[in-house]
Write a structure and sequence with these properties.
The structure is a single chain. This protein is an alpha/beta fold. It is built from seven helices and eleven strands. It has a five-stranded parallel β-sheet. The longest helix is centred in the N-terminal third of the chain and has 20 residues.
Length: 218
């Protein structure tokens, strides 16, 4: 019996040695690394994103333009009884200045804000995810510290897959890369403790995306 075991081991080792000697095997030279692994979902990207984002426990709102967004957002503030919103981006500060609503605009005020309002780098339709960076929202904390995270996205932010986003990132120029790129798929959650789902364990309990159906102008 021992002889048979040694014989089997020798056969395996012989195959391993043969494999190591045969460098440049044709099989390894023709591995397809470009074709999509997943079947692309049918329909418009916005429909795919909204469905997958809802599945991630996020809330999605469609807006015709920026005025429609401001109107819907102020209505949501009243409905949810949120009293303080922080945004560090000049573009959104300007939008709300026109309607006489005072946003928090100082980084330290993130500690007392009910809502963190940010833009985004991209919306990823296939996974219902939001890509943000420290370059876009000028802070690491706005998407993490307040109990509610509101993302405002525009038509040119919508992409199908993450590879579409990263293909536009210049990884050769390290100096141009933001210090933080985050991929967020819905509100923070964990089920580590007794397999009970807890929302807001490591970040916001609620997440909203307002999609504005026009390209961002500034």
């Amino acid at each position: 019996m021992a002889t048979d075991e040694r014989s089997s081991k020798e056969k395996i080792l012989k195959k391993v040695r043969k494999g190591l000697l045969q460098k440049g095997d044709p099989y390894t030279q023709h591995v397809d690394l470009d074709t999509d692994v997943f079947v692309k979902e049918a329909g418009e990207l916005i429909e795919t994103f909204s469905g997958n984002f809802h599945a991630n426990a996020g809330s999605f709102s469609y807006c015709f333009n920026e005025f429609d967004f401001v109107d819907q957002f102020l209505g949501l503030l009243e409905e949810k009884h949120w009293t303080s919103v922080i945004s560090l981006e000049k573009h959104f500060q300007s939008l709300f200045a026109h309607c006489d609503y005072n946003l928090f605009i100082k980084k330290d005020e993130v500690r007392i804000a009910d809502v963190g309002l940010t833009g985004c780098e991209a919306l990823i339709a296939r996974t219902g995810s939001v890509v943000i960076s420290s370059k876009t929202n000028l802070s690491r904390t706005l998407s993490i510290f307040p109990p509610v995270h509101v993302v405002v996205a525009y038509r040119d932010n919508m992409l199908y897959d993450l590879k579409n986003y990263f293909s536009g990132v210049n990884t050769n120029d390290i100096q141009s890369l933001p210090s933080m790129i985050s991929i967020i798929s819905g509100p923070s959650r964990t089920s580590d403790i007794e397999k009970t789902l807890v929302m807001g364990a490591h970040g916001p309990k609620e997440m909203y995306v307002f999609y504005i159906d026009q390209d961002r102008t500034a």
